[in-house]
Amino acid sequence: MRIRSKFLFFLLAMVIIPLCGLGLYAWRQTGELGRGLAQGAAMALEKNASQELVQTVDMISESCADTLDLLETALSLTAREAVQLLEAPPGALPSGPVILASDYDNPAFPPELLTDLPGADVRATYDGLAFHLAPGLTAEAARPQMRALSGILPFYKTLFARHKTLMLFGYVGLASGLHCAYPGHGGYPASYDPRRRPWYQNAATSPGITWDIMTDAITRQVMATMALALRAADGRLLGVAGCDIPMGAIFPESDLSKAWTDKMRAMIVSFAHKDATGQAELAVVACRDYAQKSLDWSAPVELERLETPDRQALREVIDELAAGRAGVRRLPYRGQDTLLAFAPIASKELAVVLAAPRDMVVAEARTAEIRVLAAVSRMLGHIGWFVAGAVVIVAAISLPASRTITRPVLELAAAARKLASGDFSTRVAPGGKDEIGDLAKSFNDMTPQLLERVKLKNDMALAMEVQQNLLPGRPPTVDGLDVSALSLYCDETGGDYFDFLEFAQDDAAHADVVVGDVTGHGVSAALFMATGRALLRGRAMDRPGPGALLTEVNNLLCQDTHMTGRFITLFFLRLDLAAREILWCRAGHDPGLLYDPASDAFEQLMGSGIPLGAVAEWEYAEQRRPWFSPGQVLVLYTDGIHEARDGGEGDGMYGKERMEAIIRREAAKPASAIVNALVADLREFKAGAHLEDDVTLVVIKATA
What we know:
Layout: H1 3-87, H2 101-104, E1 115-116, E2 123-124, E3 130-133, H3 139-149, H4 153-163, E4 169-174, E5 178-182, H5 198-204, E6 210-215, E7 222-231, E8 237-246, H6 247-250, E9 265-274, E10 280-287, E11 304-305, H7 311-322, E12 327-333, E13 336-344, E14 350-357, H8 358-361, H9 363-420, H10 435-470, E15 481-488, E16 496-500, E17 510-518, H11 523-540, H12 546-561, E18 568-576, E19 581-587, E20 592-596, E21 601-605, E22 623-626, E23 633-637, H13 639-642, H14 656-666, H15 671-686, E24 695-702
Antiparallel strand pairs: 1-2, 3-5, 4-5, 4-8, 6-7, 7-8, 9-10, 9-14, 10-11, 12-13, 13-14, 15-24, 16-17, 17-18, 18-19, 19-22, 20-21, 20-23, 23-24
Helix pairs in contact: 1-9, 9-10, 11-12, 14-15
């Protein structure tokens, strides 16, 4: 962006910011007024709604209590009637016709005798019973009990004639596996056995009436089931009587919660349930949502738990219900801010709960708030037009005035382009005593300094070329050995060093390999390395032993390194071809690493010795071992590889264990492949990060 544009924007900001600030202040104050009014209205609406909700839930609770009492009474009468029929002597009581449930499924059964059951897609008859035989029970064996239970038909007709809307089915399941149901219908699964149903098992082990939520085997609808055990005079279990209650029948037809909104949720909950930790919870035992579930009839229906992030509010609701009190609480439910009204059902550990979204209750207050904010938005639009006019005026004034500032800046930009093209004689005429004049002076001072840096960069490139020429150009060729080497520098020049001192001489009896590392890196390390290299090559002409050679070179280096802190770590390896052995001498350097694939073992070529140039008159000792076996791999290296830091988020080091793993994996390949594999793995470990230190590798592999 040009300075003229910046200057224009600056002037515009000086005008626009105050105007916008004034407009925002007015918008904020008006908005706060509207929100305050809406909040007051919302609180009043919420208070009124809470009172109405409590009244509504109380009325529903009383109606549900009457409904449940009626159902329990009907079930108790059913159980008493069934016990009397089952314990009466044969022929003492009148009996009715016996129709098996499978008869209703017969296509020949007169369809005009069947009628649609309310709220279900099942056809049945209110003029007859249906008897179903559990697997393994024959009609001949069950006939006495079917004859006895057929006498319950008049009782069921009378009961359902008055309360057909409360119950879908009434039934009696006996311990023999016989199942008697009213109204008569078919559609039973072949594997249906009443004794395996939860309503039968729970009632058979309970002293009173039980309550279950389950999927009906005939209609496949989720229903509430009430059941009561049939016991003989001696306490023997004869069976269980039960009835299926549609979810919608539990709530009265005059349920006032429907008048509020479809978003309101009416539930019957049990506050006697315990969770896995033993804490009381609200389990939803009846709601219209259950009827919408489609489940396998043989699978249990898992009850929904009334849950909210506000555990304290839920705890207060449970305590209020346990104390027999109705009330209302505001809490989050199903991701919405909700008013939860509740009332206990008399003499039951059940309660009616209504969940009404608060947004629905305070909708009128929200509408008023929206209208106020819309008026504020229109006011902001008027302010916007005023600001646009101010922008046009400021732009017309600022454009001519900006030229006096941009002219010297453009001159500086042109001079910078000349400098970038290589014209170091470029200068600008300083004008004025302001910041732009200071910038021009700094530009003139920078140009000669930049020229010096370019010259220094060229000198560094030349130094790097010279140092690269000091390293051996290619690995030597020796019978029985495969040799490869490589040096990587973290700067243009470095202090790592490797050499093959006598491979180029006529002496075929032995050959020397040297790997060294100078303290630090860069130009100073490269110069010190060149000095050490010259001393080693010069003294090696007399062909002394490794220990004597390093002792003499150390004394010469100490004359130059006294009090400088500079030194060289070195590993000197002599390959004695005539004696078929290797000699080495360590000067504070990492030991060589020898891998034998035959035994899958690593051996370190150890030895004592301090770095060259550290202490004068130090005597270096030699070590020796037998010649290589075919396949063995010797690796000489500097610490730049195993001390390399992780290039990712961690701070771990590459480590010698990882080096050994790569050497073991690549041991069967040529020496150059081993070097390349180590370098590739190091680059992967660094993940593109720059090397902290120089890295040198020399790999010697014994061939067949």
